[in-house]
Specification:
Length: about 300
């Protein structure tokens, strides 16, 4: 049986990303922290932490971290059953892409926060949120990755449709000849950040070839990105549900109505979930079913 004191020390080191800071948090000496980690590694027969260049869990360490999280959740669930409402809420972290948070996920996050939990939402690009899940930083994530990690499920929640839009004034000034190469390469495109691959995907589909370099502005906020487009700084891909009224009133114009981008999203969560997480998963799936685009062939996978 794994030693709980060693497990909690390991989790604190990962959280602090530093042995001395973990020692201060636990009110023990750095030497005691190192000894507990070494003893835990000896017990499981694997190296759990990379010490250089930064303190990070190894693949085996990620598995141990998920185990610690599961133990904590099961313990909290048991205590709530014995004495409901007498124990502090369990902390739940979820990774989600910014576009989901500003559209369909925001309202379901309110419902999650009303449960007996302390909710933390970590925002990252939809292609990278699974990394946080693998590290054990979060207990679930919204991702474009279809294949789940070992011990997890990846349930299809539906798709977000993106439209390539600009203002009528911007189109009259820069795109009066339409979306044509090579002149389009000098027209500013508005992207979220350097991880944002949606614009590249759109251009590749629209022109039938991969476009390497083109003029870009980065606005790492869904609201700031949309405002940049509305203020004529460029054209860009925006979630349809975020701009329905703007399209209907011709404040924005769809530059390529036949070439929208449908981003398929998946909810990654543990295969065996204690009650707090199972309830959260049910809330997310229920809300996504009402809010997102659903097409034939969507599935859920686990391994």
């Amino acid at each position: 049986m794994l030693d709980r004191l060693q497990l909690e020390t390991f989790a604190t080191v990962v959280q602090c990303q530093h042995f001395r800071r973990a020692a201060a948090a636990l009110n023990i000496s750095p030497g005691a922290v190192s000894q507990r980690i070494k003893s835990l590694e000896a017990a499981v027969g694997a190296v759990l932490l990379m010490r250089e260049p930064a303190v990070e869990p190894t693949r085996a360490g990620e598995a141990i971290l998920r185990y610690i999280m599961a133990v904590r959740l099961l313990e909290q669930e048991t205590l709530q059953i014995i004495k409901p409402g007498e124990f502090p809420p369990v902390d739940i972290a979820i990774a989600v892409n910014a576009d989901s948070l500003v559209t369909w996920f925001e309202s379901v996050s309110w419902r999650i926060a009303m449960q007996h939990v302390g909710l933390e939402i970590i925002v990252d690009d939809q292609d990278h949120t699974v990394t946080a899940l693998a590290r054990g930083d979060v207990k679930g994530c919204i991702s474009t990755q279809q294949e789940p990690l070992v011990g997890f499920r990846a349930d299809s929640v539906g798709g977000m449709r993106y439209r390539c839009v600009a203002t009528p004034e911007f189109i009259a000034k820069y795109l009066y000849r339409g979306m044509k190469l090579p002149s389009l390469l000098d027209v500013p495109a508005i992207l979220f950040d350097r991880k944002d691959a949606i614009h590249d995907r759109f251009l590749s589909t629209f022109f039938g070839v991969d476009i390497g370099r083109y003029r870009k502005h980065y606005f790492p906020s869904p609201t700031a990105l949309l405002n940049a487009i509305l203020n004529g700084l460029g054209y860009g891909l925006v979630p349809e549900m975020q701009i329905e009224a703007l399209l209907a009133s011709n404040v924005l114009v769809d530059l390529a109505p036949a070439n929208s981008v449908l981003l398929e999203l998946y909810w990654h969560h543990w295969e065996s979930e204690p009650e707090p997480l199972a309830k959260i998963s049910a809330l997310i799936m229920e809300h996504a079913h009402r809010s997102l685009v659903h097409e034939a062939g969507a599935d859920s996978r686990s391994r």
